[in-house]
Amino acid sequence: MKVGSIRRLERRRCFPDYDASALSGSVGKTARAWQVGAELEIIMKLTYYGHSCFSVVVGGKTLLFDPFISGNPLARDIRLDRIAADYILISHGHEDHLADAMTLAKQTGALLISNFEIVEWFAAKGLTHAHPLNHGGGRTFDFGRVKYVNAVHSSMLPDGANGGNAGGFVIESAAGNFYYSGDTALTMDMKLIGESTRLTFAVLCLGDNFTMGIEDAIRAADFVRCDKILGVHYDTFPPIRIDHEDAVRKFKAAGKELHLLAPGGQHEFN
Fold first, then answer.
1. Residue 84 burial by CB count (10 A; 0-12/13-18/19+): exposed, middle or buried?
2. Contact, 55 vs 62, CB < 8 A?
3. 2: which residues sit within 8 A by CB, 6+ positions away?
4. What is the pLDDT of residues 113-152, one digit of tens each?
């Protein structure tokens, strides 16, 4: 292992909010290894599928967020039948965040995780392999812990049903921790995330018009105390098209590393 990698590992703190002895399976074994001082180099591999859809491999499990692929012309080269998922996490009820969720859940057998109203909506359609959360609540799974956190956004389901309140997710694992904002305005609640969880990276909406724009996303990165950012929710529709070079330049000027991936693009965070 390289010296730089060892130093990064020594600085990293995983599972800050609960005792690793309470965790089961491989994630618990890894967390306990950290607590007794073992040096393990673990990488989170992220794949971007366009709009706000991305997956992250954590602890050997694939977490897929907000699947909207078949309706996105920018993702026309992405094949649904090649997408893997062990968990599907949905931030809110808009169609551009869940259009392919049913198809992919049936294809993969993934567990759906979302707010109570969205889980109930899918259950009425026959998808019952799901776990509901609500704001401030969390649950430990075999890869780590998921917490559903606040977002300021509307959340109507495609058929007009109530989608509950929009949210984001904080994922804590032995490989590291990350935050997905979902669709949101800038909120002071983001500071609570930065105060309680050391993040490896954050996934932030930044297309403006319907969500935060570039400047507010930079402030959000400050609030959550994270300098490695994946940008999402941009370019799909005319109102949310952005200047990529300008966005990267502004994040860099703020001391942050912004990744804007093409659909199908990948990045590893450690």
1. middle
2. yes
3. none
4. 999 999 999 999 999 999 999 999 999 999 999 999 999 9
Cα atoms in the Cβ-side hemisphere of radius 13 Å centred on 11? 10
Fold of 44-269: Metallo-beta-lactamase; Chain A (3.60.15)
pLDDT per position as a tens digit, 189-221: 999 999 999 999 999 999 999 999 999 999 999
Handedness of CA 180, 200, 216, 186 (dihedral sign): positive
